[in-house]
Design a protein that fits this description.
mainly alpha; Fumarate Reductase Cytochrome B subunit; two-stranded antiparallel sheet; 2 strands; elongated
Length: 177
């Protein structure tokens, strides 16, 4: 779906920013916890927080993706390679919003580890199936890098539109002319 309306509606804008901030925060937290922080009690607590926020992202992100698919996409402001790249980046971001939490959840579940949601409930550990655990964590890690690249391209594109092209992109996202 493309070419719907001239500006994103309020729900779309709120969806965008809430999920964007959660995803960026999760990428930062994930890199810190799994690549920087040494083993210890703090690491376990932060992994639990990462999983809780991941479940929140799964719920809010799934709603965001469904809303975007239902509402459609705005018509492109440019054609050619810019439109193609923007479309690719948008689809990668939407896919990542769902793939990241699902792959993390699958890795935990098939790694024999439970996933709690802020102490409110817990998804119990599943059977330990090493190859699924490894595959899920591999997808999770690879998609993290893909998401970082896509977010950077998305931000650079927004800056280009705002500072160089000075076109309607900012107004479409803020709802102001």
């Amino acid at each position: 779906m493309t070419g719907v309306g001239t500006a994103y509606d309020r729900v779309s804008r709120i969806n965008h920013w809430v999920v964007a901030l959660l995803m960026i925060g999760m990428l930062i937290l994930g890199i810190y916890v799994f690549k920087v922080l040494p083993r210890g009690p703090d690491k376990g607590a932060l992994i639990g927080l990462h999983k809780s926020i991941g479940l929140l992202v799964l719920v809010l992100g799934s709603w965001r993706v469904a809303w975007r698919l239902k509402q459609g996409f705005l018509a492109a402001l440019h054609s050619g390679w810019q439109e193609k790249l923007a479309n690719l980046v948008h689809w990668v971001l939407l896919a990542g919003i769902v793939v990241m939490p699902l792959s993390g959840l699958a890795g935990s579940y098939f790694g024999g580890r439970a996933t709690g949601f802020f102490g409110l409930f817990t998804i119990p550990a599943g059977p330990k199936i090493g190859w699924i655990d490894s595959l899920a964590h591999g997808v999770h890690g690879a998609f993290a890098m893909i998401m970082i690249a896509a977010i950077l391209l998305h931000v650079l594109g927004a800056l280009k539109h705002a500072l160089i092209d000075r076109d309607a992109t900012k107004a479409r996202m803020t709802g102001r002319g």
